[in-house]
Fold these 2 entries.
Entry 1:
Amino acid sequence: MPRGTGRASYSIAAVSKLTGVSCHALRAWERRYGFPVPGRSESGHRRYSPEQVAQLRQLIGLVDSGRSIGDLIGEHQAGKLACPDVEEAGPDEILEWPPVVAHLLAGEMAQAEAKLDALADRLSDWEMIERVIGPALVDIGERWFRGESQVFQERPATSALLGRLGRMLERARLANPAPRRTTLVGAVQGDHHEGGVLMVCLALELAGWRAIPMGVDLPVEEYRKAVEAWRPDALALSFVLSRNINKRFLELSNIPGVPVFVGGRSIVNHQGLARRYGLIPLTGTLRESTERLAEEVEAWAKPSASGMVLA
Ligand code: B12
C-alpha cells in the first residue's frame, strides 16, 4: 500500500485542488512550456512532487497580481525566481494530509484521528475543509478508482472523514446561535454522496447562516414540501452525479418561492442547462460559492425573517 510521507507525490487532481489550476491547464502548460513535468507512477499516471506544488502556488500568486503565466514559467525556468522553500512556503497539508490518508487506508484510525486533531489545533475550520479533509476524500476516492486501494479500505476511510465533518458542523452550529438566514442543503434522489452536502452546510454555518442538512437521495418532491412548510431563504443541492439531471432540474424548477442553487462536480458541465431551468449554478471554490449564494439571496430581497424556527 502506498504510504504517505513528507516526500509524497501528488496526483493531477490533488495538485489541481491544492493550486486551483485545472487539470486541463496543468497538462497544457506541461506541453506548451515544459512545466510542470511530473514523474509517472507505475501505472503511468502523473505524479507531482511537493516542490512542484509549492512552485505552482508561487507562480499562481504572481499571476493573480497581473503577470502572464508563460512569462512567469520562463523566469522560473531561467532560475530568476527564488525557489519557494517547501517547509516554509508549502502549507501544512502538503506535508501532512498524505499521512492522514495513509493511516486511514492502513486501518490505523486512532493515529489518523490524532493527526487530524493536531492539524485542527493549528488550522481554521476553513483550512481543514479546503486543505485537509477535501483533498483527503478526493485522494482516497482516486486511489480506489485507480485500483491502488480496495473498497474495504476506501469505505471506513471515507466514513471517518465524513464523521469528522459532521462533528465540525455540530460545533459550528453551536458557535452560530443567531443565524441570519436559513438554507436547506441536500442531494436529490439517486445521489448518495454526502461529502459535498456536509461541506456546504459547514461553509454556510461558518458564514453565519443556518444550514439544515436534508441528507442525500431525497426525492425533489420532499424538498418542495419542506420549502412550502418551512419557507427557507434558499435551497442548495449537490449534484455529484449527472444521472437524470434534466428530469431533476425540471422538478426543481417547479418549486416556487425560493432561489434554488445547484453545485457539485456535475454542475460544471451543466451550468447553461441549470440556468435554462431557472436554477442558479454555483461553481468555483466552496468559499466563492458560499459568498455568491449569500449575494444572490440578498438580491432576491426577501425580508430577513424567514418564518422558520432557527433552533
Ligand atoms: C465517498 C464516495 C462514494 C461513497 C459515498 C458515501 C457517502 N456517504 O458520501 C459511495 C460508496 C456511496 C459512492 C458511490 C458511488 N460513486 Co462515489 N465517490 C466517493 C468519493 C470517493 C468521495 C466523495 C467525496 O466525499 N468527495 C469530497 C467532496 C467534498 O467533494 P465533492 O462531492 O466533489 O464536493 C465538492 C464540490 O463539488 C463542492 N460541492 C459539492 N456539492 C455542492 C453543492 C453546492 C450547492 C455547492 C455550492 C458546492 C458543492 O463542495 C465540495 C468541496 O469543494 C468520490 C471521489 C472524489 N474524487 O470525490 C467518488 C465519486 C464522486 N463517485 C463516483 C461514482 C461514479 C460513484 C458510483 C456511481 C460508483 C458505482 N459505479 O457504483 C456510486 C454512485 C452511488 C450513488 N447513487 O450516489 C465518481 C463520480 C463521477 C463523476 N460524476 O464525475 C467519483 C468522482 C469517483 C470517480 N473518480 O469516478 N461514492
Entry 2:
Amino acid sequence: MQSYSTKQRKLLLSYLAAHADEELAADVISRDLSHEGVSVSAVYRNLAALEADGKIQKVTKSGTRRAFYRFSDAAECRRHIHLYCTECGKTYHADVPTTDYVADRIESASGFEVDRSKTVIRGVCRECGKAADTTANAKKTVNNGSGT
Ligand SMILES: [Zn+2]
Ligand SMILES: [Zn+2]
C-alpha cells in the first residue's frame, strides 16, 4: 500500500505546484483530485501532513468555515515579484526580466533591498481584463447582430 499512498501524495503535490500561490479550498482540491483517483481522506491527511511540515500554509478566511491552503514554491517565489488579481484572487509571478528590472531600479535608487518573495502588486490580471473588455464589447455591438 506504500506505493499507492506515495502516488496519491505525488499527485497532490503536483496539483499544488500547478496552482502555486493560489488559495485553494480543501474541498475543491479533493474534488479535482478525485478524477485522478485520490481519495478525499488521502487529500485531507496529506494536506495536514504538508502543513505540519511547513510545506503549505493554511489560510483562514473570515465568514467561512472552509479550509484554504496555499502552496508556495520557495525557490521560485524568491525570484519573482508577485502580481495579485483583485478580481479572481489569483497570484501570478511577474517574469524574471521584469522582476529584475523593477527590483534593480528600486535597489539602485534607494538602496532598499527588495525581498521578492514578499512583494505583492495588486491589479487586474489579463484574463479578468479580457473578460471585462468582452462584456463591454458585447454591449456595444449588441444592436449590430444580423442573425443568420
Ligand atoms: Zn510565488
Ligand atoms: Zn484575475
